Amino acid sequence: MKKLIFIFLFPLLVSAQSKTDQEKFLQIDSYANGLLSEWDIPGLALVIVRKDQVIYSKGYGFSDLENKIPVSSSTLFPIASNSKLFTSTLAAQLAFEGKLDLDIPARRYLPDLNFFNPELNYKVTLRDMLSHRTGLPAYDGIWVNASFKRPELIGKVAYMKPSLGFREGYIYNNIMYTSAGVAIEAVTNKSWEENVSERIFKPLGMNASGFTGLGEKPKNHSFSYFEAENSNKIKPRTFVSQSESLAPAGNIYSSMTDMSKWLITQVNGGKFNGKQVLAAEAIAETMIPNAIADKRGRYDELSNSIYALGRILQTYKGTKMISHTGSIDGFYSNLTYLPKDSIALFIVHNFMPAGSLRSVMNLPIIDILKDREITDWSGRYRKDYLETVERNKKNVDEINASQIKNTFPSHQASAYTGTYNHPVYGKIMISLEKNTLQIQYRSLNKMLHHWHYDQFITMDEGDGFPDLRISFLTNDKGDIDRISTRPFGDPVTEFIRVK
Protein backbone atom coordinates (compact mmCIF):
# COMPACT_ATOMS: atom_id res chain seq x y z
CA MET A 1 0.00 0.00 0.00
CA LYS A 2 2.86 2.41 0.81
CA LYS A 3 4.35 1.81 -2.61
CA LEU A 4 0.99 2.49 -4.28
CA ILE A 5 0.57 5.73 -2.34
CA PHE A 6 4.04 6.83 -3.41
CA ILE A 7 3.28 6.05 -7.04
CA PHE A 8 0.06 8.07 -7.00
CA LEU A 9 1.54 11.01 -5.09
CA PHE A 10 4.66 11.43 -7.18
CA PRO A 11 2.91 12.81 -10.29
CA LEU A 12 1.01 15.21 -8.07
CA LEU A 13 4.28 16.54 -6.68
CA VAL A 14 5.73 17.00 -10.15
CA SER A 15 2.55 18.75 -11.29
CA ALA A 16 2.59 21.05 -8.26
CA GLN A 17 6.21 21.97 -8.98
CA SER A 18 5.38 22.70 -12.62
CA LYS A 19 2.44 24.85 -11.58
CA THR A 20 4.66 26.80 -9.17
CA ASP A 21 7.07 27.55 -12.01
CA GLN A 22 4.19 28.71 -14.17
CA GLU A 23 2.97 31.01 -11.43
CA LYS A 24 6.45 32.48 -11.14
CA PHE A 25 6.62 33.00 -14.89
CA LEU A 26 3.32 34.86 -14.81
CA GLN A 27 4.77 37.12 -12.10
CA ILE A 28 7.90 37.70 -14.19
CA ASP A 29 5.69 38.48 -17.20
CA SER A 30 3.74 41.01 -15.15
CA TYR A 31 6.96 42.54 -13.81
CA ALA A 32 8.46 42.97 -17.30
CA ASN A 33 5.30 44.54 -18.66
CA GLY A 34 5.24 46.82 -15.62
CA LEU A 35 8.73 48.10 -16.46
CA LEU A 36 7.61 48.99 -19.98
CA SER A 37 4.60 50.83 -18.62
CA GLU A 38 6.29 52.66 -15.75
CA TRP A 39 9.32 53.81 -17.76
CA ASP A 40 7.85 53.99 -21.30
CA ILE A 41 10.49 51.50 -22.42
CA PRO A 42 9.93 50.66 -26.12
CA GLY A 43 11.39 47.14 -25.98
CA LEU A 44 12.84 44.58 -23.56
CA ALA A 45 13.99 40.96 -23.72
CA LEU A 46 14.69 38.37 -21.04
CA VAL A 47 16.04 34.83 -20.89
CA ILE A 48 16.46 32.57 -17.84
CA VAL A 49 18.25 29.22 -17.66
CA ARG A 50 18.33 26.60 -14.92
CA LYS A 51 21.15 24.06 -15.06
CA ASP A 52 21.24 23.10 -18.75
CA GLN A 53 17.73 24.19 -19.74
CA VAL A 54 16.12 27.41 -20.90
CA ILE A 55 13.14 27.88 -18.58
CA TYR A 56 11.99 31.31 -19.75
CA SER A 57 12.63 33.41 -22.84
CA LYS A 58 10.48 36.25 -24.06
CA GLY A 59 10.47 39.63 -25.77
CA TYR A 60 8.33 42.60 -24.80
CA GLY A 61 7.38 45.72 -26.69
CA PHE A 62 9.08 46.78 -29.88
CA SER A 63 12.55 46.72 -31.36
CA ASP A 64 11.37 49.19 -34.01
CA LEU A 65 8.64 51.57 -32.88
CA GLU A 66 8.02 53.15 -36.26
CA ASN A 67 7.36 49.84 -37.99
CA LYS A 68 5.89 48.13 -34.91
CA ILE A 69 8.34 45.23 -35.07
CA PRO A 70 8.00 43.27 -31.81
CA VAL A 71 10.94 42.13 -29.70
CA SER A 72 11.43 38.36 -29.82
CA SER A 73 14.00 35.87 -28.53
CA SER A 74 15.86 36.29 -31.82
CA THR A 75 16.03 40.10 -31.72
CA LEU A 76 19.63 41.29 -31.59
CA PHE A 77 20.79 43.75 -28.92
CA PRO A 78 24.26 45.09 -28.08
CA ILE A 79 25.28 43.50 -24.78
CA ALA A 80 27.77 46.34 -24.15
CA SER A 81 30.05 45.72 -21.15
CA ASN A 82 28.72 42.21 -20.74
CA SER A 83 31.22 41.62 -23.56
CA LYS A 84 33.91 41.94 -20.89
CA LEU A 85 33.18 38.45 -19.58
CA PHE A 86 34.03 37.07 -23.03
CA THR A 87 37.38 38.85 -22.90
CA SER A 88 38.21 37.83 -19.33
CA THR A 89 37.14 34.23 -20.04
CA LEU A 90 39.43 34.11 -23.08
CA ALA A 91 42.30 35.43 -20.98
CA ALA A 92 41.62 32.89 -18.24
CA GLN A 93 41.35 30.10 -20.81
CA LEU A 94 44.67 31.05 -22.40
CA ALA A 95 46.23 31.18 -18.92
CA PHE A 96 44.89 27.66 -18.27
CA GLU A 97 46.49 26.56 -21.54
CA GLY A 98 49.80 28.11 -20.48
CA LYS A 99 49.81 30.66 -23.30
CA LEU A 100 49.79 33.69 -21.03
CA ASP A 101 50.07 34.57 -17.36
CA LEU A 102 47.55 36.84 -15.67
CA ASP A 103 50.00 37.81 -12.93
CA ILE A 104 53.14 39.01 -14.69
CA PRO A 105 53.62 42.51 -16.16
CA ALA A 106 51.32 42.98 -19.16
CA ARG A 107 54.18 44.52 -21.13
CA ARG A 108 55.46 40.98 -21.65
CA TYR A 109 52.66 40.72 -24.23
CA LEU A 110 52.27 44.44 -24.99
CA PRO A 111 55.77 45.91 -25.45
CA ASP A 112 54.31 49.14 -26.88
CA LEU A 113 52.20 49.73 -23.77
CA ASN A 114 53.54 52.66 -21.73
CA PHE A 115 51.88 54.24 -18.72
CA PHE A 116 52.01 57.87 -17.59
CA ASN A 117 53.78 56.67 -14.47
CA PRO A 118 56.77 54.48 -15.53
CA GLU A 119 56.42 52.45 -12.33
CA LEU A 120 53.23 50.97 -13.75
CA ASN A 121 55.13 49.62 -16.76
CA TYR A 122 56.76 47.06 -14.50
CA LYS A 123 53.81 46.32 -12.25
CA VAL A 124 50.48 46.29 -14.09
CA THR A 125 49.32 42.77 -14.94
CA LEU A 126 46.45 41.50 -17.06
CA ARG A 127 44.62 40.70 -13.81
CA ASP A 128 44.96 44.36 -12.79
CA MET A 129 43.59 45.47 -16.15
CA LEU A 130 40.68 43.02 -16.05
CA SER A 131 39.70 43.97 -12.49
CA HIS A 132 39.96 47.78 -12.85
CA ARG A 133 42.65 48.32 -10.23
CA THR A 134 45.38 50.12 -12.21
CA GLY A 135 44.45 53.54 -10.77
CA LEU A 136 43.74 55.03 -14.21
CA PRO A 137 40.50 57.04 -14.58
CA ALA A 138 38.00 56.16 -17.28
CA TYR A 139 38.97 58.57 -20.09
CA ASP A 140 35.98 57.24 -22.08
CA GLY A 141 36.03 60.31 -24.30
CA ILE A 142 39.09 58.83 -25.99
CA TRP A 143 37.21 55.95 -27.62
CA VAL A 144 33.67 57.33 -27.98
CA ASN A 145 32.74 57.48 -31.68
CA ALA A 146 36.45 57.31 -32.54
CA SER A 147 38.16 55.76 -35.55
CA PHE A 148 41.34 54.86 -33.66
CA LYS A 149 42.65 51.34 -34.18
CA ARG A 150 43.51 49.35 -31.07
CA PRO A 151 47.32 49.76 -31.28
CA GLU A 152 46.82 53.53 -31.61
CA LEU A 153 44.48 53.52 -28.63
CA ILE A 154 47.06 51.68 -26.52
CA GLY A 155 49.59 54.37 -27.48
CA LYS A 156 47.37 56.94 -25.79
CA VAL A 157 47.62 55.20 -22.40
CA ALA A 158 50.89 57.08 -21.84
CA TYR A 159 48.90 60.31 -21.52
CA MET A 160 46.40 58.92 -19.00
CA LYS A 161 47.38 60.32 -15.63
CA PRO A 162 46.40 58.00 -12.74
CA SER A 163 44.01 59.38 -10.15
CA LEU A 164 44.72 56.60 -7.64
CA GLY A 165 47.84 54.71 -6.68
CA PHE A 166 48.46 51.28 -8.15
CA ARG A 167 45.96 48.77 -6.65
CA GLU A 168 44.81 51.52 -4.28
CA GLY A 169 41.22 51.30 -5.43
CA TYR A 170 38.72 50.49 -8.14
CA ILE A 171 38.15 52.70 -11.22
CA TYR A 172 36.21 51.25 -14.13
CA ASN A 173 38.31 51.52 -17.28
CA ASN A 174 37.27 50.31 -20.73
CA ILE A 175 40.64 51.03 -22.33
CA MET A 176 42.33 48.52 -20.04
CA TYR A 177 39.96 45.86 -21.38
CA THR A 178 40.85 46.85 -24.92
CA SER A 179 44.51 46.49 -23.95
CA ALA A 180 43.86 43.03 -22.52
CA GLY A 181 42.11 42.14 -25.78
CA VAL A 182 45.22 43.17 -27.72
CA ALA A 183 47.33 40.96 -25.42
CA ILE A 184 45.05 38.05 -26.36
CA GLU A 185 45.63 38.91 -30.02
CA ALA A 186 49.39 38.97 -29.46
CA VAL A 187 49.66 35.47 -27.96
CA THR A 188 47.23 33.85 -30.42
CA ASN A 189 48.17 35.69 -33.64
CA LYS A 190 44.45 36.12 -34.21
CA SER A 191 42.15 39.08 -33.76
CA TRP A 192 40.05 39.35 -30.63
CA GLU A 193 36.96 38.83 -32.81
CA GLU A 194 38.42 35.63 -34.29
CA ASN A 195 39.18 34.34 -30.80
CA VAL A 196 35.64 34.99 -29.59
CA SER A 197 34.14 33.48 -32.74
CA GLU A 198 36.30 30.36 -32.84
CA ARG A 199 36.52 29.63 -29.13
CA ILE A 200 33.04 30.66 -27.98
CA PHE A 201 30.48 31.56 -30.66
CA LYS A 202 31.02 28.56 -32.96
CA PRO A 203 31.31 25.80 -30.30
CA LEU A 204 28.19 27.12 -28.56
CA GLY A 205 26.23 27.64 -31.77
CA MET A 206 25.84 31.37 -31.11
CA ASN A 207 25.33 31.83 -34.83
CA ALA A 208 23.40 35.10 -34.73
CA SER A 209 25.91 36.90 -32.50
CA GLY A 210 28.49 39.29 -33.85
CA PHE A 211 30.43 42.50 -33.38
CA THR A 212 29.21 46.06 -33.81
CA GLY A 213 31.06 47.79 -36.64
CA LEU A 214 31.96 44.61 -38.53
CA GLY A 215 29.82 44.35 -41.64
CA GLU A 216 26.30 45.68 -42.02
CA LYS A 217 23.96 45.86 -39.06
CA PRO A 218 21.65 42.81 -39.16
CA LYS A 219 18.01 43.47 -40.07
CA ASN A 220 16.67 42.10 -36.79
CA HIS A 221 18.91 44.38 -34.71
CA SER A 222 16.92 46.54 -32.28
CA PHE A 223 16.84 50.31 -32.39
CA SER A 224 17.46 52.26 -29.21
CA TYR A 225 15.52 55.34 -28.15
CA PHE A 226 15.87 58.55 -26.19
CA GLU A 227 13.54 61.30 -25.05
CA ALA A 228 14.11 64.45 -27.10
CA GLU A 229 14.93 67.50 -24.99
CA ASN A 230 11.95 69.71 -24.13
CA SER A 231 9.54 67.64 -26.22
CA ASN A 232 8.95 64.35 -24.36
CA LYS A 233 8.94 62.67 -27.77
CA ILE A 234 10.59 59.25 -27.97
CA LYS A 235 13.00 59.18 -30.90
CA PRO A 236 15.50 56.64 -32.25
CA ARG A 237 19.08 57.35 -31.27
CA THR A 238 21.38 57.88 -34.25
CA PHE A 239 24.61 58.84 -32.48
CA VAL A 240 26.90 55.79 -32.14
CA SER A 241 29.43 55.76 -29.32
CA GLN A 242 30.78 52.32 -30.11
CA SER A 243 34.03 52.09 -32.00
CA GLU A 244 36.23 49.29 -33.32
CA SER A 245 38.83 50.07 -30.68
CA LEU A 246 36.31 49.39 -27.88
CA ALA A 247 35.51 45.84 -29.03
CA PRO A 248 37.07 43.77 -26.20
CA ALA A 249 35.31 46.03 -23.68
CA GLY A 250 31.86 46.17 -25.20
CA ASN A 251 31.15 45.46 -28.88
CA ILE A 252 29.29 42.15 -28.93
CA TYR A 253 25.65 41.96 -29.99
CA SER A 254 23.51 38.89 -29.38
CA SER A 255 19.98 37.51 -29.00
CA MET A 256 18.21 35.79 -26.13
CA THR A 257 18.50 32.51 -28.04
CA ASP A 258 22.27 32.87 -28.27
CA MET A 259 22.76 34.34 -24.80
CA SER A 260 20.96 31.35 -23.29
CA LYS A 261 23.83 29.17 -24.58
CA TRP A 262 26.40 31.45 -22.97
CA LEU A 263 24.45 31.36 -19.70
CA ILE A 264 24.20 27.56 -19.73
CA THR A 265 27.96 27.35 -20.29
CA GLN A 266 28.56 29.59 -17.28
CA VAL A 267 26.20 27.61 -15.03
CA ASN A 268 27.80 24.31 -16.04
CA GLY A 269 31.44 25.23 -15.58
CA GLY A 270 32.30 25.59 -19.26
CA LYS A 271 30.21 22.66 -20.52
CA PHE A 272 27.61 22.91 -23.24
CA ASN A 273 25.63 19.98 -24.65
CA GLY A 274 27.89 17.62 -22.74
CA LYS A 275 31.10 19.03 -24.24
CA GLN A 276 33.75 20.91 -22.25
CA VAL A 277 33.97 24.01 -24.45
CA LEU A 278 35.87 26.09 -21.89
CA ALA A 279 37.96 24.83 -18.99
CA ALA A 280 36.12 24.74 -15.67
CA GLU A 281 39.27 26.28 -14.19
CA ALA A 282 38.97 29.24 -16.57
CA ILE A 283 35.33 29.84 -15.63
CA ALA A 284 36.25 29.63 -11.94
CA GLU A 285 39.15 32.07 -12.43
CA THR A 286 36.76 34.77 -13.60
CA MET A 287 34.88 34.50 -10.30
CA ILE A 288 37.87 35.07 -8.00
CA PRO A 289 37.45 38.47 -6.25
CA ASN A 290 40.16 41.05 -6.94
CA ALA A 291 39.01 44.59 -6.10
CA ILE A 292 36.38 46.14 -3.83
CA ALA A 293 34.08 47.93 -6.28
CA ASP A 294 31.66 49.46 -3.78
CA LYS A 295 32.98 50.32 -0.32
CA ARG A 296 29.98 52.23 0.99
CA GLY A 297 26.91 50.37 -0.20
CA ARG A 298 23.50 51.99 -0.43
CA TYR A 299 20.85 49.39 0.29
CA ASP A 300 20.54 46.91 3.15
CA GLU A 301 19.47 44.15 0.76
CA LEU A 302 22.77 44.30 -1.14
CA SER A 303 26.24 43.65 0.19
CA ASN A 304 29.28 45.62 -0.91
CA SER A 305 30.34 44.50 -4.37
CA ILE A 306 33.70 43.01 -5.32
CA TYR A 307 35.00 42.97 -8.89
CA ALA A 308 36.47 39.74 -10.20
CA LEU A 309 37.26 39.39 -13.93
CA GLY A 310 34.38 40.79 -15.96
CA ARG A 311 32.02 39.96 -13.09
CA ILE A 312 30.82 41.51 -9.83
CA LEU A 313 30.36 39.39 -6.71
CA GLN A 314 27.90 40.31 -3.96
CA THR A 315 24.93 38.98 -2.03
CA TYR A 316 21.30 39.96 -2.44
CA LYS A 317 19.10 39.23 0.57
CA GLY A 318 21.64 36.57 1.54
CA THR A 319 21.78 34.97 -1.92
CA LYS A 320 25.20 34.87 -3.57
CA MET A 321 24.95 36.72 -6.86
CA ILE A 322 27.52 37.11 -9.65
CA SER A 323 26.55 39.76 -12.16
CA HIS A 324 27.58 42.51 -14.53
CA THR A 325 25.81 45.30 -16.37
CA GLY A 326 26.18 46.78 -19.82
CA SER A 327 25.44 50.25 -21.19
CA ILE A 328 26.08 51.58 -24.68
CA ASP A 329 24.18 53.74 -27.17
CA GLY A 330 20.83 53.49 -25.41
CA PHE A 331 20.98 49.74 -24.74
CA TYR A 332 21.15 48.54 -21.12
CA SER A 333 21.67 44.96 -19.97
CA ASN A 334 22.27 42.81 -16.92
CA LEU A 335 23.74 39.29 -16.77
CA THR A 336 23.26 37.50 -13.44
CA TYR A 337 24.34 34.07 -12.18
CA LEU A 338 23.12 32.47 -8.93
CA PRO A 339 25.63 29.66 -8.33
CA LYS A 340 23.78 27.98 -5.45
CA ASP A 341 20.61 27.75 -7.54
CA SER A 342 22.26 26.90 -10.89
CA ILE A 343 20.24 29.74 -12.40
CA ALA A 344 21.38 32.50 -14.75
CA LEU A 345 19.50 35.27 -16.52
CA PHE A 346 20.08 38.00 -19.06
CA ILE A 347 17.83 41.03 -19.48
CA VAL A 348 18.19 44.00 -21.86
CA HIS A 349 16.15 47.07 -22.88
CA ASN A 350 16.47 49.91 -25.39
CA PHE A 351 15.54 53.21 -23.68
CA MET A 352 18.01 55.83 -22.40
CA PRO A 353 15.88 57.39 -19.62
CA ALA A 354 15.64 53.94 -17.99
CA GLY A 355 19.40 53.40 -18.12
CA SER A 356 19.86 53.39 -14.34
CA LEU A 357 17.57 50.34 -14.10
CA ARG A 358 20.33 48.13 -15.50
CA SER A 359 21.83 47.69 -12.03
CA VAL A 360 18.64 46.42 -10.38
CA MET A 361 16.23 45.15 -13.05
CA ASN A 362 17.44 41.61 -12.30
CA LEU A 363 16.61 41.77 -8.58
CA PRO A 364 12.79 41.43 -8.64
CA ILE A 365 13.25 38.44 -10.95
CA ILE A 366 15.49 36.85 -8.33
CA ASP A 367 12.85 37.58 -5.68
CA ILE A 368 10.23 35.85 -7.82
CA LEU A 369 12.40 32.84 -8.59
CA LYS A 370 13.32 32.50 -4.90
CA ASP A 371 9.63 32.82 -3.97
CA ARG A 372 10.10 35.69 -1.52
CA GLU A 373 8.81 39.20 -1.03
CA ILE A 374 9.39 41.33 -4.13
CA THR A 375 11.20 44.60 -3.50
CA ASP A 376 10.07 47.48 -5.70
CA TRP A 377 13.47 48.39 -7.16
CA SER A 378 11.86 50.04 -10.16
CA GLY A 379 9.91 52.39 -7.87
CA ARG A 380 13.05 53.30 -5.93
CA TYR A 381 15.01 54.03 -9.07
CA ARG A 382 12.13 55.85 -10.72
CA LYS A 383 12.04 58.20 -7.75
CA ASP A 384 15.80 58.75 -8.07
CA TYR A 385 15.44 59.37 -11.80
CA LEU A 386 12.71 61.99 -11.39
CA GLU A 387 14.76 63.77 -8.73
CA THR A 388 17.76 63.74 -11.08
CA VAL A 389 15.63 65.22 -13.87
CA GLU A 390 14.63 68.08 -11.58
CA ARG A 391 18.25 68.68 -10.51
CA ASN A 392 19.34 68.72 -14.14
CA LYS A 393 16.65 71.27 -14.96
CA LYS A 394 17.91 73.50 -12.15
CA ASN A 395 21.49 73.08 -13.38
CA VAL A 396 20.45 74.08 -16.90
CA ASP A 397 18.61 77.08 -15.50
CA GLU A 398 21.72 78.10 -13.56
CA ILE A 399 23.89 77.72 -16.65
CA ASN A 400 21.45 79.77 -18.72
CA ALA A 401 21.40 82.43 -16.01
CA SER A 402 25.21 82.61 -16.18
CA GLN A 403 25.12 83.67 -19.82
CA ILE A 404 26.27 87.25 -20.24
CA LYS A 405 23.91 88.88 -22.71
CA ASN A 406 24.82 91.26 -25.52
CA THR A 407 28.44 90.16 -25.80
CA PHE A 408 30.31 89.47 -29.05
CA PRO A 409 33.21 87.29 -30.18
CA SER A 410 36.59 88.99 -29.95
CA HIS A 411 37.53 88.16 -33.56
CA GLN A 412 36.02 87.92 -37.00
CA ALA A 413 34.42 84.51 -37.62
CA SER A 414 37.19 83.45 -40.03
CA ALA A 415 39.79 83.81 -37.23
CA TYR A 416 38.26 80.84 -35.39
CA THR A 417 38.46 78.42 -38.31
CA GLY A 418 41.18 75.81 -38.49
CA THR A 419 42.27 72.42 -37.20
CA TYR A 420 42.89 71.91 -33.48
CA ASN A 421 44.64 68.79 -32.23
CA HIS A 422 45.16 66.88 -29.01
CA PRO A 423 47.53 63.87 -28.88
CA VAL A 424 44.93 61.75 -27.07
CA TYR A 425 41.55 62.97 -28.32
CA GLY A 426 42.45 63.72 -31.92
CA LYS A 427 41.37 66.59 -34.17
CA ILE A 428 38.58 69.15 -34.02
CA MET A 429 37.91 71.09 -37.22
CA ILE A 430 36.19 74.47 -37.23
CA SER A 431 34.89 75.74 -40.55
CA LEU A 432 32.80 78.67 -41.75
CA GLU A 433 29.65 77.94 -43.72
CA LYS A 434 27.29 80.75 -44.74
CA ASN A 435 28.95 82.99 -42.15
CA THR A 436 28.24 80.48 -39.40
CA LEU A 437 30.89 78.50 -37.51
CA GLN A 438 30.62 74.73 -37.85
CA ILE A 439 32.34 72.07 -35.75
CA GLN A 440 33.39 68.65 -36.97
CA TYR A 441 34.62 66.22 -34.32
CA ARG A 442 34.61 62.55 -35.22
CA SER A 443 31.11 61.97 -36.67
CA LEU A 444 29.72 65.07 -34.94
CA ASN A 445 29.06 67.81 -37.49
CA LYS A 446 27.08 70.70 -36.05
CA MET A 447 26.54 74.43 -36.09
CA LEU A 448 28.20 76.42 -33.30
CA HIS A 449 25.91 78.90 -31.55
CA HIS A 450 27.45 81.91 -29.85
CA TRP A 451 27.04 81.78 -26.05
CA HIS A 452 29.06 84.75 -24.83
CA TYR A 453 32.47 86.29 -25.54
CA ASP A 454 34.59 83.55 -27.17
CA GLN A 455 32.44 80.67 -25.97
CA PHE A 456 30.20 78.67 -28.30
CA ILE A 457 27.87 75.70 -27.87
CA THR A 458 26.17 73.06 -29.96
CA MET A 459 22.41 72.77 -29.57
CA ASP A 460 20.20 69.73 -29.18
CA GLU A 461 18.67 69.01 -32.57
CA GLY A 462 16.65 65.98 -31.52
CA ASP A 463 19.19 63.48 -32.87
CA GLY A 464 20.70 62.21 -29.63
CA PHE A 465 24.13 63.69 -30.32
CA PRO A 466 25.89 64.98 -27.19
CA ASP A 467 26.16 68.74 -26.69
CA LEU A 468 29.55 70.45 -26.59
CA ARG A 469 30.67 73.73 -25.07
CA ILE A 470 33.69 75.25 -26.82
CA SER A 471 35.90 78.05 -25.49
CA PHE A 472 38.38 79.65 -27.89
CA LEU A 473 41.61 80.83 -26.23
CA THR A 474 44.28 83.27 -27.40
CA ASN A 475 48.06 83.46 -27.21
CA ASP A 476 50.10 86.47 -26.04
CA LYS A 477 49.57 88.17 -29.40
CA GLY A 478 45.82 87.85 -29.11
CA ASP A 479 45.54 85.24 -31.84
CA ILE A 480 43.14 82.29 -31.44
CA ASP A 481 45.44 79.32 -30.86
CA ARG A 482 43.54 76.83 -28.67
CA ILE A 483 40.16 75.29 -27.94
CA SER A 484 39.07 74.27 -24.47
CA THR A 485 36.28 71.69 -24.10
CA ARG A 486 35.23 68.50 -22.36
CA PRO A 487 35.39 65.75 -25.00
CA PHE A 488 32.33 63.57 -24.43
CA GLY A 489 32.26 64.34 -20.72
CA ASP A 490 35.96 63.83 -19.98
CA PRO A 491 37.92 66.47 -18.01
CA VAL A 492 38.48 69.91 -19.58
CA THR A 493 41.08 69.53 -22.30
CA GLU A 494 42.90 71.98 -24.56
CA PHE A 495 43.23 71.31 -28.29
CA ILE A 496 46.12 73.20 -29.93
CA ARG A 497 45.67 74.85 -33.29
CA VAL A 498 47.87 73.15 -35.89
CA LYS A 499 46.65 74.95 -39.04
TrEMBL record:
It holds the Pfam family Beta-lactamase. It comes from the Bacteria. Residues 403-486 form the Peptidase S12 Pab87-related C-terminal domain. InterPro entries: AmpC-like, Beta-lactam-related, Beta-lactam/transpept-like, Peptidase_S12_Pab87-rel_C. Residues 39-359 form the Beta-lactamase-related domain. This is CubicO group peptidase, beta-lactamase class C family. It comes from Daejeonella rubra.
